[in-house]
Amino acid sequence: MSKQIIAPSFLSCDFGRIKEEVEYYNLTQAEWFHLDVMDGVFVPNISFGMPIIQAIKKHSQKPLDVHLMIVNPEKYISAFRDAGADNITIHAEASHHLHRAIYQIKETGAKAGIALNPATSVESIYDILEDIDIVCLMSVNPGFGGQKFIYKTLEKIKKIKSEIISRNLNTLIEIDGGVGLENAETILQAGADVLVAGNSIFKSQDPKSTIEKLKAIEAFKSF
Ligand code: DX5
Ligand code: ZN
């Protein structure tokens, strides 16, 4: 089993020092930079769009993991790819034609992710599991950083992990929201591959060492 991927969520960064922030995180063990795009319609908050992603791309040495919390994501897939996205994750709840949207993402050369809100069951994507590179399980209701981890997510991780294993797939399970040093081991033990963490990294005393600690966790895997 390969080591967990750590993806700091830049929603919690200091946007006035974006270049310095990116350069700092370039030198950490973080593998991906997680970028949250919010439109104020799909979620009750507005964050940033293409210009900020372009600015981050200019300085980043890591793949950009772009999480679209927007309605009509299909409309903007190529624009986000052009802005520098390496992974593009859209919400199952935001698209009526997920299968088509996944292939739209793949045609750009990006990896395709599907995010599920806490109220959306993992079974709802079983028929397209083979087509997806990343399943992002939201462990908070999307829209804001710094919320509490919803523990019910652990059951969803276990369920989809066993489905992925039984079908012999390489789909990565990403967990987004309320992840930190206090619960990372349990989350990894349940079957997560990618940990997104905003506040627990950016607001910590020493973000670099927090990432090292998250990376060093050896979870007992029951699968
Ligand atoms: C929530 C976002 C998350 C958020 C995570 O809507 O999708 O990526 O930045 O932040 P924390 O880790 O602080 O919960
Ligand atoms: Zn996110």
Give the SSE layout.
Blueprint: E1 5-8, H1 18-26, E2 33-38, H2 50-59, E3 64-69, H3 77-83, E4 87-91, H4 98-107, E5 111-116, E6 134-138, H5 153-166, E7 172-176, H6 184-190, E8 194-197, H7 199-202, H8 207-216
Parallel strand pairs: 1-8, 2-3, 3-4, 4-5, 5-6, 6-7, 7-8
Bound molecules: D-xylitol-5-phosphate and zinc ion.
Please explain how this structure is put together.
This protein is α/β, with parallel strands linked by helices and 223 residues long. The chain has one domain (5-216): Aldolase class I (TIM Barrel), CATH 3.20.20.70. The chain contains 8 helices and 8 strands. The protein has helices at 18-26, 50-59, 77-83, 98-107, 153-166, 184-190, 199-202, 207-216, and strands spanning 5-8, 33-38, 64-69, 87-91, 111-116, 134-138, 172-176, 194-197. An 8-stranded parallel sheet has the order 1-8-7-6-5-4-3-2. Helix 3 (77-83) links the parallel strand 3 and strand 4. The radius of gyration is 16 Å and the shape is globular. The chain starts with a strand and ends in a 7-residue tail after the last helix. The structure holds D-xylitol-5-phosphate and zinc ion. D-xylitol-5-phosphate binds at residues 9, 11-12, 34, 36, 67, 140, 142-147, 176-179, 196-200. The site of D-xylitol-5-phosphate has 22 residues, from strand 2, strand 8 and helix 7.
